[in-house]
Amino acid sequence: MALRLFLPLLLLAATLLIAQAQGIGTSASDCCLKNSEKAIPSKWVKSYSLQGRESGCTLHAVVFTTKKNRKICASPTDPAVQKLMQNLDKKMKNDKKDKKDKKKGQSSRPRGRPKRQKWQQV
After folding, report:
1. 31, 64, 79, 109: which is deepest, by most CB within 10 A?
2. What does the pLDDT look like over 63-115, one tens digit per residue?
3. H helices of the chain, where?
């Protein structure tokens, strides 16, 4: 009787171990397999990330995310790709600076209703 309960559990555990050993369920399924050779218009792109062995992928690539949330893989050694990355870095730095400036400006502004002023008799 105990063997009937133990055998299915043993098979399930073995299946899970084999699936882990083969890499099923890892983040490697999101890796670029090939880099695009076409030029990427800068007005399409909103961000980028780097892909390589440290992320579990075999191909070194720059993964651009477009404004329509599509992924485009590009070669990190391509000069046009490097320039696009620099432009995005500058844009992100300026956006962060603008947000800090806005926060500083808001903190000096009073919140809520203004204080009631006393009427002076003439």
Report:
1. 64
2. 999 999 999 999 999 999 999 999 999 998 888 877 777 776 655 555 666 67
3. 2-22, 79-107
CB 66 within 8 A of CB 26: no
- The total domain count for the chain is 1
29 found inside a domain: no
User: Is position 12 within any domain?
Assistant: no
Threshold 0.70, pTM exceeds: no
Assigned domain for 79 exists:
yes
CA distance 89 to 73: 18
Question: What stretches of 29-78 show up as alpha helix (H) in DSSP?
Answer: none
In a domain, 49, yes or no: yes
Pairwise CA distance, residues 113 & 49, whole Å = 46
Task: Find the CATH number of the domain harbouring 56.
Answer: 2.40.50.40
User: Which of 69, 64, 30, 68 lies closest to 47, judged by CA?
Assistant: 64
Which residue segment(s) compose the domain that 81 sits in? 44-97
What backbone torsions phi and psi does residue 13 show, to the nearest 5 degrees? -65, -40
